[in-house]
């Protein structure tokens, strides 16, 4: 059923499945994407939002001043600043590879902001021509931009690090005819071109030109590579006609065109062959186009998001609010006013496990774990079916876990992989650990407060070094430090950046006070070897996570005795260490207690260890583990005896060891594992039930069981096995010290009225006798006993109420009247 619920969320595009999980519910408030210009960074980066000054919008409860606001991908506000730059309206903005926000205004001036909405000086201009002609459009790519002026000229900055603008070749006829204007632009990045320089594709009229610094060439598209397809048209070449929108694929090999007659055409940049030609229902150009990986193209109109693939019918997603498409290397993030989703092709490993009806080895392994959890024998059956493909199944589960955003599903898939790995001898054991390590990092940065929703493919392409750099630039220094430590990376970069950021932000603070503030930071203190001071600061803060960070650091760096001495005098640190060590490091905890003279705590640990050993399945059926258990308890008893305050515990442990030894002997002689860890009472009772009276008497003698207790135990044990003859004989051995009440109780509990009647008349207490008769339904005898009891008629009145609702009351009527 889990597979069905997972696969039900998928959409089929020809023969490929796509999914669109929701990553975040946006935390921002009163943000309407349709009223703003929005720039979203790739690799789960920040989102810049500013009111679009090219639109007439109604102002609500907001200032007339435009504000540039920067959010993380979950809609958490990171920074904001008032926009009051000259130079005309804002033409476009985008994030560079190093997460610098590049903004270009109408006169060609470029304003750069960091993630904290701080203006980076100095400003740069696109040149005199841009200033004179005005910029009308700009197209960004990773680390560069191309601008189009009103005069039809193209200017380019190929690297934002150098910020050197230069003019590209003129498009034929564009600069001469003011009426002729490009309909759309697209950029082919330098790393994908033969020349190594940026190429700009310009659609003018029926032509498409490829423009670089030296020349502008018209390109022609030839016959299609897919023949006899219903989705293909008959005429190609230059008959494509005017193009209204176009985008280049992420690898630079394909160009997607939306033509004047509503066709989507995908052509190869090198081969010039048409790979896809699909006619849409509307000739209205889409507001946005984006590649989804390398398998499909997305087109967005109001309320309709359409995905087109090489073959088959398109897939439609409908929205009742505006969306922004954010291309990534393995899919597209879809940002709306209320949510962030990630549209991607379902990974092959995930499809093999969760596809409805799948019988792949990975699906059977995942199913086997489910059966194992439900204690079903079908788990073993599934494992036998995939025995030869077990390594492949484990690898698929690990890979699928890496592609999941849902933590519970990650955990389930990794459990399935670990389960299968236990039965596979030729599988790399570190694959599960490596994936767990990666997922812990990804889950940490996906937290809405951090808001970097990286997929595992994006993470590998971005690299951990760049991720750490982005975290410290966002001033998430503590998380960056923890990840650096976890991955074994250099922590000095994080600490140095934190210190510099602290100094920069504290320009008015005196140097001496600033030094004190810096040294107050625990991770910094640890990095420079000031463990004592770090421990003091951490315990004073009361932050248990911080205290644990210091404890584990010192634990690894210092010898045990030095470590013990450091934490002994600090109550919070000591208590946290003891709490952790009780669960995970008991041997080390014993050393700590011995070094601090707490012998009784060592004894308690030994006693607990003996109980834990008893829970081991191997510790039953006469296992030799009972020997070590008894020795541990005896050792605990000896340690208790060395302190006057724990005499009781010493005696209890001594008797526990003695009882355990007797129980072990009983199990060995009876060949039944039913004695160990039972109480003295249960041991005696079990011996009598097994008709081993000699052993029962021995236990009674060893532990000085009183006669009263003995009579109760033996009476009920004999009643349990319904040995009424032995019970009667036992009652006549001597006058029972308990009286005959145990015999009556045992017979009544066994529902043997006849046997109970042998002993009820012998009860000396008339109240007890009357109650016993009443319990077996003998109303008249109960009334007689009650009448003779010297209790002021209390028992008689109780019986009157008890029996008044049944026919027996008539038999009680006369005796009651006689008494009254």
UniProtKB/TrEMBL annotation:
SUPFAM superfamilies per record: WD40 repeat-like
Pfam families: Vps16_C, Vps16_N
GO cellular component terms, semicolon-separated: endosome; HOPS complex; vacuolar membrane
Gene Ontology MF annotations: actin binding
Domain Vps16 C-terminal: 521-797
Biological process according to GO: endosomal transport; intracellular protein transport; vacuole fusion, non-autophagic
Topology within the bilayer: Peripheral membrane protein
Localisation: Vacuole membrane
Entry-linked InterPro entries: VPS16 (IPR016534), Vps16_C (IPR006925), Vps16_C_sf (IPR038132), Vps16_N (IPR006926), WD40/YVTN_repeat-like_dom_sf (IPR015943), WD40_repeat_dom_sf (IPR036322)
Keywords annotated in UniProt: Membrane, Vacuole
Domain Vps16 N-terminal residue range list: 8-430
Protein task: Required for vacuole biogenesis and vacuole enlargment in dividing and expanding cells. Involved in the docking or fusion of prevacuolar vesicles.
PANTHER family, per the entry: VACUOLAR PROTEIN SORTING VPS16, VACUOLAR PROTEIN SORTING-ASSOCIATED PROTEIN 16 HOMOLOG
Recorded family membership: Belongs to the VPS16 family.
Official protein name in the record: Protein VACUOLELESS1
């Amino acid at each position: 059923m889990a597979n069905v619920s997972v696969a039900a969320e998928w959409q089929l595009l020809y023969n490929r499945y796509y999914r669109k999980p929701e990553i975040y519910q946006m935390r921002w408030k009163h943000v309407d994407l349709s009223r703003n210009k929005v720039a979203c960074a790739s690799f789960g980066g920040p989102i810049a939002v500013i009111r679009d000054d090219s639109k007439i919008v109604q102002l609500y409860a907001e200032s007339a001043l435009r504000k540039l606001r920067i959010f993380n991908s979950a809609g958490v506000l990171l920074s904001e600043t008032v926009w009051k730059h000259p130079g005309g309206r804002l033409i476009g903005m985008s994030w560079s590879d190093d997460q610098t926000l590049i903004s270009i205004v109408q006169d060609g001036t470029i304003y750069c902001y960091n993630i904290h909405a701080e203006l980076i000086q100095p400003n740069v201009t696109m040149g005199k021509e841009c200033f004179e002609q005005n910029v009308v459009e700009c197209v960004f790519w990773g680390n560069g931009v191309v601008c189009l002026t009103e005069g039809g000229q193209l200017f380019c900055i190929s690297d934002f690090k150098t910020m050197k603008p230069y003019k590209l070749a003129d498009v034929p006829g564009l600069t001469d005819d003011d009426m002729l204007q490009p309909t759309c632009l697209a950029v082919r990045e330098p790393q994908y071109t033969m020349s190594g320089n940026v190429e700009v594709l310009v659609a003018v009229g029926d032509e498409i030109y490829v423009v670089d610094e030296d020349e502008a060439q018209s390109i022609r598209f030839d016959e299609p590579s897919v023949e006899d397809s219903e989705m293909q048209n008959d005429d190609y070449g230059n008959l494509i006609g005017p193009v209204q929108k176009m985008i280049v694929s992420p690898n630079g090999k394909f160009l997607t065109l939306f033509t004047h007659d509503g066709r989507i055409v995908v052509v190869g940049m090198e081969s010039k062959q048409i790979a896809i030609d699909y006619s849409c229902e509307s000739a209205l150009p889409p507001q946005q186009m984006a590649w989804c990986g390398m398998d499909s193209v997305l087109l967005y109109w109001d309320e309709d998001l359409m995905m087109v693939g090489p073959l088959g019918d398109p897939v439609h997603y409908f929205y009742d609010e505006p969306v922004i498409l954010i291309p990534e290397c393995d899919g597209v993030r879809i940002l709306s006013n209320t949510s962030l989703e990630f549209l991607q092709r379902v990974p092959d490993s995930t499809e093999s496990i969760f596809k409805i009806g799948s019988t792949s080895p990975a699906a059977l392994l995942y199913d086997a774990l489910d059966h194992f959890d439900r204690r079903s024998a079908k788990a073993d059956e599934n494992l036998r079916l995939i025995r030869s493909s077990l390594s492949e199944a484990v690898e698929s589960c690990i890979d699928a876990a890496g592609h999941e955003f849902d933590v519970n599903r990650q955990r389930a898939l990794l459990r399935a992989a670990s389960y299968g790995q236990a039965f596979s001898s030729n599988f790399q054991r570190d694959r599960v650990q490596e994936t767990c390590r990666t997922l812990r990092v990804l889950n940490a940065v996906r937290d809405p407060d951090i808001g970097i929703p990286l997929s595992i493919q994006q993470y590998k392409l971005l690299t951990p070094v760049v991720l750490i750099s982005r975290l410290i630039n966002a001033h998430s220094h503590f998380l960056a430090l923890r990840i650096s430590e976890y991955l074994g990376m250099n922590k000095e970069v994080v600490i140095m950046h934190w210190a510099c950021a602290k100094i920069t932000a504290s320009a008015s603070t005196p140097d001496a006070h600033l030094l004190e503030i810096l040294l107050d930071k625990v991770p910094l203190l640890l990095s420079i070897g000031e463990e004592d001071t770090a421990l003091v600061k951490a315990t004073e803060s009361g932050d248990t996570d911080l205290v644990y960070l210091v404890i584990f650091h010192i634990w690894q760096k210092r010898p045990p005795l030095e470590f013990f001495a450091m934490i002994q005098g600090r109550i919070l640190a000591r208590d946290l260490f003891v709490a952790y060590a009780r669960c995970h490091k008991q041997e080390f905890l014993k050393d700590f207690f011995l070094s601090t003279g707490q012998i009784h705590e060592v004894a308690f640990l030994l006693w607990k260890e003996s109980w834990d050993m008893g829970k081991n399945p191997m510790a039953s059926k006469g296992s030799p583990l009972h020997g070590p258990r008894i020795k541990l308890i005896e050792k605990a008893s000896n340690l208790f005896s060395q302190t006057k305050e724990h005499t009781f515990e010493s005696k209890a442990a001594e008797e526990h060891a003695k009882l355990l030894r007797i129980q072990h002997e009983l199990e060995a002689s009876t060949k039944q594992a039913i004695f160990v860890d039972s109480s003295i009472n249960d041991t005696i009772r079990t011996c009598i039930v097994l008709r081993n009276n000699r052993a029962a008497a021995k236990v009674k003698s060893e532990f000085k069981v009183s006669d009263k207790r003995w009579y109760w135990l033996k009476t009920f044990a004999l009643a349990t096995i319904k040995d009424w003859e032995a019970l009667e004989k036992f009652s006549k051995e001597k006058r029972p010290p308990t009286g005959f009440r145990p015999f009556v109780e045992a017979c009544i509990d066994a529902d043997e009225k006849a046997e109970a009647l042998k002993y009820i008349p012998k009860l000396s207490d008339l109240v007890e006798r009357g109650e016993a008769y009443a319990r077996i339904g003998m109303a008249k005898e109960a009334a007689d006993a009650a009448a003779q009891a010297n209790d002021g008629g209390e028992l008689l009145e109780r019986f009157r109420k008890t029996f008044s609702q049944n026919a027996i009351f008539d038999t009680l009527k006369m005796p009651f009247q006689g008494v009254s």
